[in-house]
UniProtKB/TrEMBL annotation:
Pfam families: DoxX. This is DoxX family protein. It comes from Mesorhizobium metallidurans STM 2683. Keywords: Cell membrane, Membrane, Transmembrane, Transmembrane helix. Belongs to the DoxX family.
Length: 150
């Protein structure tokens, strides 16, 4: 990217911002990954302290046995969030988190009958995680440091 174009090669309306955009490109993506991962881990921290606490809820969604799926949910959110934040196994962790969020979309939209407005936060988070399923962890990740990506 030159100082007068963006990443797609298009001319910038304000060319003087090209250097700033270029400098912040990777940092912005890294910040989004770290924040998304930490927020997912914080959300999952409530579940990891009682990993079987959601067993009845997940059975209500049709996931049997509830104890297994409750444990998997807690681990996916807590440990998956940590993996996303540090950028280790970024794609599989983001995919697992995205799957969990798409289940919550179904729960709010269909099961609870709340429609888009009940599911919009889960849709937004699922889209953020889809971004990292596609892109991976970028150069500021453990995946990049070890030279391997899924």
């Amino acid at each position: 990217m030159s100082a007068t174009t963006d990443n797609s090669g298009k001319s910038l309306v304000i060319p003087a911002l090209g250097g700033l955009y270029s400098a912040l490109h990777d940092a912005g993506e890294t910040l989004l990954r770290v924040v998304a991962g930490l927020f997912l881990a914080i959300h999952g921290s409530q579940k990891i302290t009682n990993p079987f606490g959601a067993a009845e809820m997940v059975e209500g969604l049709g996931f049997y046995p509830g104890a297994f799926w409750s444990l998997l949910l807690a681990c996916t959110e807590f440990f998956g969030g940590i993996l996303i934040a540090i950028g280790l196994l970024t794609r599989p962790a983001a995919f697992a988190g995205m799957f969990v969020l798409l289940v919550t979309v179904w729960f709010h939209w269909v099961t609870m009958g709340q429609g888009f407005f009940g599911a919009e936060k889960s849709l937004l988070w699922a889209a953020i995680l889809l971004f990292f399923v596609i892109r991976g962890g970028n150069r500021h990740s453990v995946d990049a440091r070890i030279g391997k990506a899924f």
